[in-house]
Amino acid sequence: MGWRTIGNIYGEYTIIPGLKLRSSWSIDNGSEYENNYSNTLISAGISSLGSAASYENKNIVLTNEQVLNYIKTFGPNGKHNINALIGNTINTVLTQNTSATGTGFAANSLKSVAVAATRSGSSSRAESKLLSFFSKVSYTYDNKYTIDGSIRADGSSKFGVNKQWGYFPSGGFAWRAGQESFIKNLNVFDELKLRASIGLSGNQNGIGSYAAQGLWSSGANYLEQPGTAPSQLANPDLTWETTRQIDFGAEFGFLKNRLNIVVDYYNKYTYDLLLNVPVPYRSGFASYLQNFGAVRNKGVDLAINSTNVQTASFKWTTNFNISFNANKIEKLASDIALGASGRNISILRQGYAVNSFQLYKQLYVDSQTGNAVYEDVNKDGQITSADRQIVGNALPKFSGGFNNNLVYKNFDLGFSFIFQQGNKIMNMNDFFMVHGNLQANIGFLPRQLERWQKPGDQTDIPRLTADSRNPAQNGGNANNYGGNVANLSSRYLEDGSFIRLKTLTLGYNLPAAFLQKVKLNKIRLYAQATNLLTFTKYGGLDPEVSSQSSNQNTAGYDWATVPQPKTFQIGANVTF
C-alpha cells in the first residue's frame, strides 16, 4: 500500500510587454509500505517457524524553477520574431528505505515483526541535488526561416568533485520551403518543411546518489567485534554520460493537406557511458564505476496521416507510423555479462547491440539418440562455455502502429494496431517447464509431451534425462548430449514479433435536439475492447513482455509474466 502527493504553485510577473518572469515550486512526495507473513503451513514458513517482513520506502522530489521569457515581433509586416528565455532549476531528491524481518512465532495468529523470536532490520537514506542553468534563443524571418540555439549547464552531486558540471549546447534550422513562390508554382505541395539539428545532452540515470564517492560499509566483523571495510572506490573524475544527436527531417502536405508525411533520420552517439569497468582483483574490488564506452543508435521514423474520405456525413482518417533503429556498441572495456539468477545469458559486447543473448546454439535433436546437438564454435569436439555465442537480441528491427477512425453522422468507430518485428524473447517458461530434467522439482507444460521418446522421432525437444549438468560442466561431446534444465540454449530463444489489435471502440453521440432538452453540451456513449486479437509465433503467453525492463541491458525475458488482459467496457462521456 502507499500514497502519493503531488503539488505545484507558481507566480508570473510581466516586467514590460513581451518580457515575463515565471517562478514555480513543486513537490512529489510518495510513500509505500508492505507487511507480509509466511505461516507454518507453507514451505516458506515451515523451517523458520513463521517468517514476517515489513518494508517502507519514501521518496521526495523538490523542484524550484525560474524562467525569464522574452517574445518580440517587429519589422515591416511583423516579419521578424524573436523568442528567447533564460532560467535555472534546483532539484533535490531524497529517498529513505526501512526494513525489518523476524522469524520464529509462537502462533500463526501473531504476525508482527515485534513479537518474533529473532528480529533484524536495516535502513538507508540517500540525497542528491541537481542545479541547472539554461537559455534558448529562436529567430524566425517571414514565417519561413527559423534558426535556434540553446545551451544548458548542469551540475549534479552524484558526480566526482572534479567534474560535477556538464555543458550541453544545441542548434537547429528549419525552412518552410512550401512558402516560397517557386515551390507554390509547382502546385504539388500544400506544405513542405525541411529541418536539421545537432546537439548534446547529458544523463545521470542509472547510478546511485553517492556513485563517485569512496564508501565504507559495516559488517566486516572479526572475532565477534564490529568492523568496517571499504565497499566502493572513489572516482573524483566521474562525470556526465553524453549523447550527441544529429537529426534531419522533412514534412510534406498534399491534396489540400489531406495527406501528410513526416520523415526523420537520427544518429545518436552516446559516449562516456556510466559503466562498472573490471579492475585487477589486487585492488580489492572486481569493478570500478567509470566513464568508459560508447553506443550508437541510428534510424528512420516515418509517420503518415491521411483523410481518406470526407463528406458532409462521413469522415475516415488513418494514421500510420513506423520506426527503424540500428543499435551497436562501439566501445567497451570488456564484455559485461548480465542476467537474472546469475545465469549471465545477456551480454554487452563491442560490435553488437545491447540486450544481446549469449547462448549455446542448438542445431537439432538427434533422431536416433534424442540428444541435443549444439554448434561447436571452436571446433575442439567438446561443448564448453567457450562455445556460447550471440544468437539474437531483444531489440526489434522495426515497430509502429496503425490507427483508423471512422465517423458517420453521430456514430464513430476507431481501431488501432501495434506491431514490432525482429526482437527475440528468452522464454523462461519453457526453460523451467519444458526442460526435460527428471531431477528438477518443477512442473511440466503439455508441450513436454512433444519431446523425443523413441528412435526416429523428429522434434526440437531432447529426451527426458536425469542429468542436471550443462555441457560446460561435463565437457559434453558436441554430438552426444541430452537436454536438461541447466542448459540454457537457443531452443528457448523465440521470435517475439507480433501484430496486436490494441483497441477497438464504437461510440454514439446523442442528438443535439435531445441535448437541448436535458440542457447538456454533449453525451457520448461508447463500448471499448483492448488487446482483442494478437497474431504472433511466440509460444509464451504474451509477446509484448520484458519482465526485466527495469534493467535496460537485460530486456527480453519472459518469467511467466502475467499477460495483458483482454478488457471490455462500456461508458458515457458527459459534458456540461
UniProtKB/TrEMBL annotation:
Which topology term describes how it sits in the membrane? Multi-pass membrane protein
> Which residue ranges does the record assign to the TonB-dependent receptor-like beta-barrel domain?
21-532
Q: Does the keyword Transport apply?
A: yes
Biased composition, class Low complexity, residue ranges: 470-481
- Which superkingdom heads the taxonomic lineage of this protein's source? Bacteria
Disordered: region residues: 455-481
* Chief localisation class: membrane
The UniProt entry, under InterPro entries, shows: Beta-barrel_TonB, Beta-barrel_TonB_sf, TonB-dep_OMP_SusC/RagA, TonB-dep_rcpt-like
- Keywords of this entry: Cell outer membrane, Membrane, TonB box, Transmembrane, Transmembrane beta strand, Transport
Quote the subcellular location field of this record. Cell outer membrane
Q: Which Gene3D superfamilies does this UniProt record tie to the protein?
A: TonB-dependent receptor, beta-barrel domain
The UniProt entry's sequence similarity note says: Belongs to the TonB-dependent receptor family.
Name of this chain's protein: TonB-linked SusC/RagA family outer membrane protein
Instruction: Supply the source organism for this entry.
Output: Mucilaginibacter terrae
Taxonomic lineage from the root: Bacteria, Pseudomonadati, Bacteroidota, Sphingobacteriia, Sphingobacteriales
